[in-house]
Amino acid sequence: MSDRTQVGIIGAGPAGMLLAVLLHRAGVSCVVFERRDREYVTSRARGATTEHRVVELLRRHGLAENLLATGAVEDAVEFRLGGRRYPVHYEPLAAGRSHYIYPQQFLVRDLIDLYLAEGGDLRFETPVAAIDDVTGAPRIVLADGRGELYCEVVAGCDGEYGVARAAVPAGALTCVDYQYDYAWLSVLAQAPPSSDCVINAMHESGACVHVRRTPTVSRFYLQCGRDETREHWPDERIWKEVRLRLTLDEPWTLHTGPITATGTVRMRSLVCSPMRYGSLFLVGDAAHIVPPVGGKGFNLALADAEELALGLIEQLRDGDRRRADSYSQQRLARIWRAQEFVHWMMDLVNTPGHGTSAAPFLHRVQAARLARLMDSPAYLAAFLEDYVGWW
Ligand SMILES: Cc1cc2nc3c(=O)[nH]c(=O)nc-3n(C[C@H](O)[C@H](O)[C@H](O)COP(=O)(O)OP(=O)(O)OC[C@H]3O[C@@H](n4cnc5c(N)ncnc54)[C@H](O)[C@@H]3O)c2cc1C
């Protein structure tokens, strides 16, 4: 196969699919290549916490119907420390703005259904092996000799370990990262949520975060050592630590159930800039990573995709390159603000300096930060602005 299109999109995750839907609807031709099958991409459970501004983004483009109909509104977050709960209600500061809990695989499913129903070209089980000549005549080369695609623009929406970032020559891309000295064990359980909002428990043994996913599925995150794996965490240990870290001095019920998936999330922040090289644009996790605390990853990916779609529509349909040319600069300002917020929240939620002589001091700083959040309306307003996402 040797083909031609305006935009070649690598990856059918949230970023790739939103970009594809917006371009296709605007009459810009595109082809999406996805290395996995449809079942895999529409059932891969990752994020679910959708920010206010991303809900508005989807609503603006008429893509929020299922999310608004079946997603759960979240208008509070709870912190726990020393057996006490510290609830934070978004109102009145949020003035009607809230999170929606809508698993990202449902959104990916919605976008795929729509794109295909509207005649979009999406090729599953078609891995991209390489991207060539992005400063000349860009070409996407498929794996296993399955052909190539010439395009005017390549959108690398292929996640943290994709081929797009690797296609940028050394020296043309600057990547800066930060590795936390702990990890999170992520646990998906067939258990009804034990709370109708996110719980961030700050405990001497490490953080425990509880997030509802659907009425029958809950996710728990347990702060753990970087080298720990599922072998270190048999089911009994998981539930014992969840119970311990979420403990309250008042009655409450923890719902447990069969554990359906676990994984170790290495806590890493990364930003690569610029998010463009020649006619290759990097979008979402291909350009930047945040740890899951605060739920920013797929929200940033969707916001990148919208900005790039609007820029490419102006460039390829109307001949005006200005918005596409400012994509990287415009997005990096937002991405760094999110990085700063997530870094701050990581220090708030996770037990700092675990096992070191600095731990007692840092633990008290952590408690003082929570006390300030509870005491100062100005501090709380600043937190909500970034957490709920309306800036
Ligand atoms: C456990 C966990 C929980 C999370 N929780 C949240 C949360 O609550 N809120 C939040 O906002 N974010 C969360 N995130 C982050 C979020 O999932 C990611 O930021 C988001 O998936 C990024 O979307 P993307 O489209 O950029 O990349 P991805 O979702 O990674 O999609 C990339 C796609 O490209 C495909 N691909 C890769 N290489 C190739 C190739 N060579 N050829 C063809 N296709 C290719 C992949 O198969 C994949 O389908 C979480 C992440 C994890 C791991």
Describe what you observe in this structure.
The chain has 391 residues and is α+β, with helices and mostly antiparallel strands. It has two domains: 2-48 and 103-173 and 274-342, FAD/NAD(P)-binding domain; 178-267, D-Amino Acid Oxidase, subunit A, domain 2 (D-Amino Acid Oxidase, Chain A, domain 2, 2-Layer Sandwich). Helix content is 35%, strand content 29%. The strands form three sheets. Strands 1, 2, 8, 9, 10, 11, 17 and 18 form an eight-stranded mixed beta sheet that branches. A hairpin with a 5-residue loop joins strand 10 (139-142) and strand 11 (148-156). Helix 1 runs parallel beside helix 8 and helix 11 (359-375) crosses helix 12. The longest helix has 23 residues, at 327-349. It is globular. The mean pLDDT is 95.
CATH topology of the largest domain: FAD/NAD(P)-binding domain
SS-derived structural category: alpha+beta
Question: What is the CATH architecture assignment of the largest domain?
Answer: 3-Layer(bba) Sandwich
Largest sheet, described in full? Answer: 8 strands, mixed
Please describe the topology of this protein:
Blueprint: E1 2-10, H1 14-25, E2 30-33, H2 38-41, E3 49-50, H3 52-60, H4 65-70, E4 72-74, E5 76-81, E6 84-89, E7 99-101, H5 104-117, E8 121-123, E9 128-132, E10 139-142, E11 148-156, H6 163-166, E12 174-189, E13 198-202, E14 208-214, E15 217-224, H7 235-245, E16 259-273, E17 276-277, E18 280-282, E19 288-289, H8 297-316, H9 322-325, H10 327-349, H11 359-375, H12 377-389
Helix pairs in contact: 1-5, 1-8, 8-10, 11-12
